[in-house]
Design brief:
The chain starts with 21 loop residues before the first strand and ends with a helix. Strand 2 and strand 3 (47-66) form a beta hairpin. The protein is built from 2 helices and 4 strands, in the order E-E-E-H-E-H. The protein has a single domain, classed as Ribosomal Protein S8, Chain: A, domain 1 (2-Layer Sandwich). Helices cover 21% and strands 46% of the residues. By secondary structure, it is of the alpha+beta class. It has a 4-stranded antiparallel beta sheet, covered by helices on one side.
Length: 122
């Protein structure tokens, strides 16, 4: 992840039903554009809920799709994955909570990039 830019100023994400939050980093990895975001939501029982999202820009348009829990487990995504959705040229892998350290952060981003690259090969 050394290629990531740590200052997200000046970067904008297109309007998306899958994204809401602050863009923390952008860069290229595995031949695709990747952005890391952090957002918060509200749950009446748990109050504030934090999410970390890896957004990957796909090389070509894809039909809208959302994976179910069983499909996400089969893909071997890291623990904590909350949702996986694709629409147009955007793949959005959203995780519950913020990773404990950079190793966990890198694993989450690497998994999203690996998934995007595998989609491009099909």
């Amino acid at each position: 992840m050394a290629a990531f830019i740590t200052d997200g100023e000046g970067w904008e994400l297109p309007a998306s039903p899958h994204f809401r939050g602050t863009l923390l980093a952008v860069g290229h990895q595995g031949g695709v554009e990747v952005g890391i975001t952090c957002s918060e939501g509200w749950d009446p029982e748990a109050e504030t809920i934090w999410h970390m999202t890896a957004l990957v820009r796909l090389g070509e348009e894809r039909s809208p799709a959302r994976l179910h829990s069983r499909e996400m487990r089969r893909l071997g995504l890291p623990q904590g994955v909350a949702s996986v959705a694709m629409d147009g040229r955007e793949l959005c892998v959203r995780y519950a909570g913020w990773p404990e350290d950079f190793v966990a952060l890198n694993a989450r981003v690497d998994a999203a990039v690996h998934l995007a690259v595998s989609l491009l090969e099909t």
